[in-house]
Amino acid sequence: MRAWGARRVGVAVMPLLLASACSNAIVPAGIDRGAPPPQRPRAAQSSPVSPSATRYTPGVKLGTPATPMPATPAAAAPADATSAVAAGWVAGPSIASLPIDAAAAQRALAAFRLSCASLQKRVDATGLTQGADWAPACVAAGQAGDALGFFRQQFETVQIADGRAFATGYYEPEIRGSRTRRAGYETPIYGVPRDLVEVDLTLFATDLAGRKIRGRVEGNRFVPYFDRTEIENGALAGKAPVIAYAADPVELFFLQVQGSGRLHLPDGGVMRIGYASQNGRAYTGIGALMRDRGLVQPGQASMQGIMAYLRAKPAEGQALMRENKSYVFFRELTGPGPLGAMGVPVTANGSVAADPRFVPLGAPVFLSLDRAEASGLWVAQDTGGAIKGANRFDTFWGAGEDARAFAGGLTARGTAFLLVPRGTLAKLGNGRAPAWP
């Protein structure tokens, strides 16, 4: 689970059909007597870019079609691969041959500078590099004036396994909230429970290095922590601080998926909240469940389309959301943010979430995708409960209506090339991925 959470939030695209007096209802009762939330303009509509997108969801920007660069022929990552080296690798193209624009290079350089301190201290689970390998690039980054020249001089590219990339989008949600419970703001936003225990399994077995679990102590047993249903039914009463209250449980659910966001308060102020911890339960994407069950039509499985279904069918919607047993706990953010898994602010159109077993956190990544807006140079500064496996990425788009509209509908495929310090490929020696026959 990234310092954020795991993915995205969306715009309501259907009328609210049903209200409920229950404080945990999909559509809570009550009318706020304070200031209304800021008005959001309707997102500009765009044409579908895939033949399968036979329906259009209002509020979604699907992006401009593009043709990805071809990958070097290589085998797909083995299903049991737990690192980039185990997945296999081949040398990628020269950085000079990559279509990196100056603005993207400048954003990536700024993000890379923020990551350098942590990048050099972290244990790289990919097997590709060590912290010290990044020192020359980090020194050069502090002095670089020409961003594009910096990346060309300091890095070379590597393709992990077959390089086939799949990318989605996330952003910083903005929802209505209140610091205190009041009419129309009745769904609690919890801080970290006092009885939540995190266990570092590295302390118990070397073959579990890097793995952690969360749970609670019940008598003399360590048991899984309360799941989403139990929490919504009051299991945290007296066990966790309530840092705020949300006006809409559907929006809060997707803010949890994102892991960070902004609460627009009744008095017109803004409270920023960020990921503090999680209940240790596995993340389940309800979009995939809905597609598998035929609950959404082709082209309607975007965040916005999912939210429309949840609002139209409150009882079924609540049951679906509860199938995601993962539950995120928050803290108030008062400094720069939102923060990624490295503890540094993520950059709109510059930061990407990745699986740290396959991409060193802090490393630049070039994505060549079938959506032009998502193609380009990014820096891996975040992780996510749903972002697992080689060449799986989640691109960050910032805050606001445009970010919401684009991130909510983004699914892009193409090719990924990881940027590593010059000399890395020579050090790796013969660890190359087997090529296709």
UniProtKB/TrEMBL annotation:
Pfam families for this protein: 3D, MltA
Keywords assigned by UniProt, alphabetized: Cell wall biogenesis/degradation, Lyase, Signal
Q: Which residues form the signal peptide?
A: 1-25
Does the keyword Endoplasmic reticulum belong to this entry? no
Q: Which domain of life is it from?
A: Bacteria
Q: What is its EC number?
A: 4.2.2.n1
* Listed SMART domains: MltA (SM00925)
Segments for region (Disordered): 32-74
One GO MF annotation is: peptidoglycan lytic transglycosylase activity
Question: Which reactions fall under this protein's catalytic activity?
Answer: Exolytic cleavage of the (1->4)-beta-glycosidic linkage between N-acetylmuramic acid (MurNAc) and N-acetylglucosamine (GlcNAc) residues in peptidoglycan, from either the reducing or the non-reducing ends of the peptidoglycan chains, with concomitant formation of a 1,6-anhydrobond in the MurNAc residue
Per UniProt, residues of the Lytic transglycosylase MltA domain are 174-331
An example GO BP is: peptidoglycan catabolic process
GO CC term, one of those recorded: outer membrane
Against Gene3D superfamilies, the record matches this protein to: Barwin-like endoglucanases, RlpA-like domain
Q: Would I find Signal among this entry's keywords? A: yes
Query: What is the official name of this protein in its record?
Result: peptidoglycan lytic exotransglycosylase
Report the source organism: Sphingomonas yantingensis
Biological classification of the source = Bacteria, Pseudomonadati, Pseudomonadota, Alphaproteobacteria, Sphingomonadales
